[in-house]
Amino acid sequence: MSAIPTRRYRSHPRLRLNLLRVIVLAALGVLLLRLWSLQVLEHGRYQVAAEGNRVRQVVSPAPRGAIVDDRGNALAVNRTALVITIDRSVLARQADSGRGVYTRLAKVLHKSATELIIKTRLCTRHISKPCWNGSPYQPIPVATDVAPPVALAIIEHPERFPGVSADTQAVRVYPHGTLAAHELGYTGPVSQAQLTDKNGGYTANDTVGLAGIESTYDKALRGTAGVKKLAVDRFGRVSGELSAAAAKPGDNVVLALDGGVQNLLEQSLVAALANAQKHGKPATTGSGVVLDWHTGQVVAMASVPTYDPSVFTGGISSANYAALTGPSSNDPLISRAFQSTLAPGSTFKPVSLSSAVASGADLNGNYACPGAIQIGNQIFHNFEGESGGFMSLHEAIVMSCDVIFDQFAYNDWLSDGGLRNGSGPYAPPAEIFTKMAKSYGFGRDTGIDLPAESSGWVIDRVTQQNIWKQMKTTYCARAKTGYPNDPDPAHAALLQRYASEACTDGYLYNGGAATMFGIGQGQYLSVSPLQLALAYAAVANGGTVFHPRVAKALVSQDGKQVTKIGPAVASHVPVNPDVLQYIRDAMLDVTRRGTASGAFAGFPLNQIPIAGKTGTAEVEGHNDTSWFASFSSQYVVVISLPNTGQGALFAAPVARQVYEGIYGVNRPALLPTPVTALPKVIKP
Amino acid sequence: MTSLLPGTRPPRSAYRGPVTLEPLSGPGAASSRARERHALSLRQVDWALAGSVLSLCIIGSVLIASATRQYQLDHHLNPYAYLTKHLITVLVGAVLAVFVARFDFRLVRAYTPVLYLASLAGLAAVIAVGSTINGARSWIVLPAGFQLQPSELAKLALVVGLALILGRPPNAGETGVAATPGGRELVQALLLAAVPLVLVMMQPDFGTAMVLIVMVVGVLAVSGAPARWVSLLVASGVGFGAAILKFHLLKPYQEARLTEFLKHSSVHTSSTGYNVQQALVANAHGGLLGRGLFAGSQTQGQFVPEQKTDFVFTVAGEELGFLGCAVIIILLGIVLWRSLSIAQRACDRFGTLVCVGVVIWFTFQILINIGMTLGIMPVTGLPLPFISYGGTAMFANLVAVGLVENVRLRAP
Prior knowledge:
The complex is a heterodimer.
Chain A: H1 3-10, H2 14-41, H3 43-54, E1 55-60, E2 67-68, E3 74-86, H4 88-92, H5 99-109, H6 113-120, E4 140-144, H7 148-155, E5 164-173, H8 181-184, E6 187-189, H9 192-196, E7 207-209, H10 212-216, H11 218-222, E8 226-232, E9 238-245, E10 252-255, H12 259-278, E11 286-292, E12 297-304, H13 318-325, H14 349-358, E13 366-369, E14 372-375, E15 378-381, E16 389-392, H15 393-398, H16 402-415, H17 432-439, E17 457-458, H18 461-481, H19 489-505, H20 511-517, E18 525-526, H21 529-541, E19 544-547, E20 551-555, E21 562-564, E22 568-572, H22 577-593, E23 611-617, E24 625-631, E25 635-641, H23 651-663
Parallel strand pairs in A: 2-10
Antiparallel strand pairs in A: 1-8, 2-3, 3-4, 3-5, 6-7, 8-9, 10-20, 11-12, 11-25, 13-16, 14-15, 17-18, 19-22, 20-21, 23-24, 24-25
Helix pairs in contact in A: 5-6, 12-23, 14-16, 14-17, 16-20, 18-19
Chain B: H1 29-39, H2 47-74, H3 81-102, H4 105-129, E1 131-133, E2 136-141, E3 147-148, H5 150-166, H6 183-202, H7 206-222, H8 227-246, H9 252-259, H10 271-286, H11 297-300, H12 313-319, H13 321-344, H14 349-373, H15 391-409
Antiparallel strand pairs in B: 1-2, 2-3
Helix pairs in contact in B: 2-3, 2-13, 3-15, 4-5, 4-6, 5-6, 5-7, 5-14, 5-15, 6-7, 7-8, 7-14, 10-12, 12-13, 13-14, 14-15
């Protein structure tokens, strides 16, 4: 009985069987451990991959809001254009991967198949534009603004063009061409940098504002794109809609700017330049600003030369861009009204008068106005060497006596210690002139609702020190080496002399420049026409310096939600009301019997009193800049025409034309009072 | 009586022993078969094993239904066509298993050469007239949409073939001292495996080849072959594998499949890498409790390729989560554990080695298949026993379970 089991069991290698048990358990144990690690510990890491697998976004752009003027006239709107699009996923399912479709489509569109393929390939880290940076589930535009017959030829033959369709797409248009181009700005495709900015809220293929109002109010204008989240399977087939947010159209922007006044201003500037050129002046640029001095709102602002913002729509070609920015282009993209600065000349005198009174000058005193005065080793002439004898400050403004204001500024410089600079055993300089200039808004950004403004400069003693510290190495090097690359030897010699002076004496606060500051000249002062207009608005309104505003409201598409863009006060000038009244009175006489009386001859000043001040700023190597800064009971008008001549001859007549248009002198009035109500409809 | 195994029952008087094989057509055959049948009872069936296999088949059917329903719906086909076909397969396989379990034990031995030669014929036929699916010529397409995969039958044939050779009564005779296979048995076993191995490699189906190799080495090892032989075999196998990779004897895609899992990177470039990545994503997406049946976005979105066959485990991974997967692995563990217990208490070496062969076969496929969906094993086209979609494999697996139960039924 026992023999059989003994033999049998001997033949069973128990140890090896048990080893096999251990191996089996180990194998299953390894699987369970790995399962725990993957499913429980690494669950979160793969969650994103799982979502990315299955969710696809389709973005439908929101219609961009319109920009309208104060009366509702459309300045920037959308036009629908026929766009041919390609659906990649449909083409990919073709037997030949869509190659045939590309070829046939290229023929119809008169493009090369390669171009179409390049346009529809997906952007990656290694493939840069031209390529498609949107969702592969979105139809990709390959031809914009095609003729309706071409679109018909495509959509009537779906069997020849599977996956190709004709859609309408909004294209930005500026119905009035160049009108207010610098203020409206332009749009273009979203940049990679903007897409990278997580807070920007941009999506691929957005159209974004790149300049002007289009840029400043881009967020409101753009609205919110509609986003549909689709669940898809491995083959890209849509299995359901996970969420859908409808596109919220962008708000319309209502401007304070008046299309009529703007047009008049632009036309007048162009005509003035043509006139100046006719008189042999090499003038090529000019600008003007019309503000409502009660609110700081910009009624019109123009700069010549200008451009048509439409060329930027959908991305500007490099040839067009070169034409707008090249050396011979005269920089039409830059607004001379707020993006460039220059010496204001005698239009600065109201500010100087404020400074003189602040530094103790008697408002009612009489001051000598000789033909010239000598300050240090420099001789300062009156304008064209005229001598006016003793006169009041009133007359100094009316007749524009330079020497009186030179003297005030020089005295101020002297009482601050003259050349003395830096710290020492003496009272700190009062610097009344530069401080007053700053309080009128010069030397700083105006805060206008347009991008890239120039702040100009007001250089006081500390600033001068800092500049010199930064620049002295350069000055001293130039003093030695000169300017060998300058083609004009005389000019090069002059520059070398300046460099030499700056190298040795640059740390000193220059008396000559400080003196010329009083008459709006010299290297210590540079202003933009917009800044000057704001300073004049302050004189007119009793001392309030506004942040100027081109836009006055954002209105939702349905018109129900209105966000007003109210006046914003920047500062108040520290000038007594009676001084401001004194200045206003003096300026009223400028047009009646002063330097601008010629330009305003025959203008109904009794019904429409105009307070003004001419300016003729000397620019080395160029003709004078002609200035006229003025205000009526409602508006400030500032005109600046560089490289022309006297303010009274060139700028003042332009201002007169603008007033005539606004108030309707011998013609229908454009805007005797600003439009306060918001427009109800958009007029094309 | 000294019993060396715990729980062994005393040998029944009906036991005739494996030593002598009665002539099948002899005069005593009928009466002995009748006695044998009489002795079989349901009480003898290993119900834990049978129940686990049945549970796995049901779970597999549900997983296959989930993996295929959305595809069928998308193509306006019967959403449960695959489920129906799979259930039929399971049913037929179950009938086969019951038949095999009740089969006369000695007849199994007698038919082993027939089964072996039949599988060789199938493998030869597949090379001659087979259809290429996923790069391997592994299928014979039959009418009415059925396919036969002879390599699955080859595994079964090798199991019984090895058991027959290595479980032969030792030449020591009644004394039974030398109960280990000798050199002759070893060579015979290697030759037995070599022929189907070569045919399988010609398809080429490296997964099955690996199973065959592991089976022959494993069964040899357990059968009591001297350790140095076994070590030598393992060493030469490893050397051979290393040489294949070293000298790039495989096609690039095959090499990629084998080596992809070693790269610990989430960026996979090859299509195999994509498969593994999607499998990992689906498994991980399930988390602890799973997304619910028919509710896994990765599964229903058909992101995992080959999901009803090789990657069926990912359906469980995503929709049933860690708990569901653990249940499957535990059920598989019960199948293996019980089979080993049956091996231990088999009435003869043949029975033991049949069970051992089956356990090695299943274990290897489970480890490779699940490990592959978890990114720790190379991608080879090995199905998951009892769960993957595929008729021949299901038949082979269930028949193997039938064999194990057969051994159990005749155990003392």
